[in-house]
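Ticket reopened. Same input as before:
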Amino acid sequence: MQVYIDGKFFPQSKANISVYDHGFLYGDGVFEGIRIYNDNIFMLDEHINRLYDSAKAIGLKVPLSKAEIKDAVKQAHKVNGLKSGYVRLIVTRGVGNLGIDPKKCPKPSIVIIVNKIALYPVALYKKGMEIITASTQRTPVSALNPQIKSMNYLNNILAKIEAVNAGANEALMLDSSGNVVECSGDNIFIYRNDTLITPTTSIGALDGITRGIVMKLAEQEGLSVKELIFSKYEVYTSDECFLTGTAAELIPVVKVDGREIGNGKPGKITGLLINKFRKFIELL
Ligand code: PXG
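Engineering reply: fixed in the latest deploy. New output:
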């Protein structure tokens, strides 16, 4: 695969960045994970807008205009010729010295990786998956707002480690008040009292692009959709549960902390939304 770094393409083995890049030294940078479906870059405008918002929030000036960065992503897609796959778009603070001051990094870098994406095992999409609640809380909005899709994913990684150690597929993360926020790399939805519910982004969930699509598709289907603040109790007692994300797409959850959700099988509304999402992708 050919990797784009600051306007040039390099073979993967030669695609290097400096160890003095503050993205490497401090996780100082922002990124997007974007799908390629049917030779199309999925929701490119939405991802680029979120990338710019993330960059703005950390005081990082993206060295290309939105139109230029979209062109660069399209070029990286073309050069690599993948009809389906994944784009990792990264803007790092750039090379500085051994101090956190971003002023010491005069030139941010843009990296675009195109490759295949490893999904959850296919069987889980039919069978549904098991998640656990992590003891690691989601980073508070007042510390590092999770709306910023930053290169520092340690908070999520610590939760994921807990899930893997417990033999589960994903970790549910709560805020300091016990409110459900999201999973380590996916947004969460529950279906309860004939309503599709997802945590409000104001408590620290990423404003997921897949989440947004699912909310629209559900509304089109005439479902009641709400963004609310709720606890593990509402998850345990929900009729259905599923996760959404660029990597995960829509995946049913059938067990949370050992409690079966609904009848322990992927729910009807979940199935309906998975089908609607697949059709939405095919129409592109
Ligand atoms: N919450 C978090 C914390 C995420 O990292 C989502 C929600 C879903 O957002 P989108 O916009 O993708 O619907 C994410 C996204 C990976 C990978 O490599 C992770 C994500 C996306 C793409 C790849 O594990 N997470």
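The mean pLDDT is 97. Residues 124-282 form a domain with the D-amino Acid Aminotransferase; Chain A, domain 2 fold (CATH 3.20.10.10). Please confirm and we'll close it.
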